[in-house]
Write a structure and sequence with these properties.
This protein is an alpha/beta fold and 241 residues long. Helices cover 27% and strands 29% of the residues. It is globular, with a radius of gyration of 16 Å.
């Protein structure tokens, strides 16, 4: 196994899409090369239901920028994109200047009226993918509440959890992320927004359930030794390899 520098970003999202992208770009450029970076859910536009077409067009600009920035690092982010049948909340992983993985949010949050504005993604897209020698998976925000989706990323070394989690349910977010790490014996990289309505709670959680969090920071960083995945699966054997 290998070690990797991991970054969970915890940023506020403003009304100006370009300014949001510039701020994200500056944070990414401060991260080490050959690192893995996760941004909060729809952090470039937020859930801008009155500006969905504009957000989808901006996703094209953001994608080109992130492809360039990923030449020597891995960047995971979600963005609003439009296809013929409607809008999707797409998680995209950029790696070595290419789009490595994409999945559309399958479980839409009814309390936030997501089901009225987005199409549901295909559950089959929630599947493991490779970043170099690491097996990775992703669960997008509200999807964290569905145990059947945890099963789809079992066996991963690293699981991404981008979110815009409500501050009223902050404990839910932190508890579920920690439980996900312990249950799957994986590292969990969780990134939630920092706007006033958001829970924050971003962090990096080891397969043993040890969590590094700091609500005062925009960037939470840790060098993860992925030998920990092998160790916990060997000594607390639940059938994962």
């Amino acid at each position: 196994m290998i070690s990797k520098q991991l970054y969970a970003l915890q940023v506020k999202t403003g009304q100006n899409f370009e300014e949001n992208l510039t701020h994200l770009k500056n944070l990414i450029l401060d991260c080490e090369s050959d690192s893995i970076i996760l941004a909060p859910e729809v952090c470039l536009t937020n859930f801008c239901y009155q500006r969905m077409d504009e957000a989808s067009e901006f996703a094209k600009i953001a994608t080109e920028t992130l492809l360039r920035l990923s030449s020597d690092r891995t960047i995971a982010i979600t963005m609003i994109e439009k296809y013929r049948d409607g809008f999707y909340n797409n998680l995209k992983v950029f790696h070595k200047g290419e789009l490595l993985h994409k999945q559309s949010k399958h479980k839409l949050f009814p309390l936030g009226n997501e089901h009225l504005h987005f199409q549901s993604g295909d559950i089959a897209e929630i599947a493991p993918f490779k970043i170099d020698d690491l097996t990775c998976g992703a669960i997008n925000c509200f999807e964290l509440r569905f145990i059947e989706l945890w099963e789809r990323v079992k066996g991963c070394d690293l699981i991404f959890v981008p979110a815009q989690w409500g501050k009223e349910r902050k404990d839910n977010f932190e508890t579920l992320c920690k439980a996900l790490a312990i249950t799957t014996q994986s590292f969990v990289l969780a990134s939630s927004g920092a706007n006033d309505t958001c829970a924050k709670g971003s962090g990096i959680i080891s397969p043993f359930g040890l969590a590094l969090t700091d609500d005062s920071k925009e960037v939470i960083a840790m060098r993860a030794d992925f030998n920990a995945v092998l160790q916990v699966r060997k000594y607390i054997n639940i059938g994962l390899k």
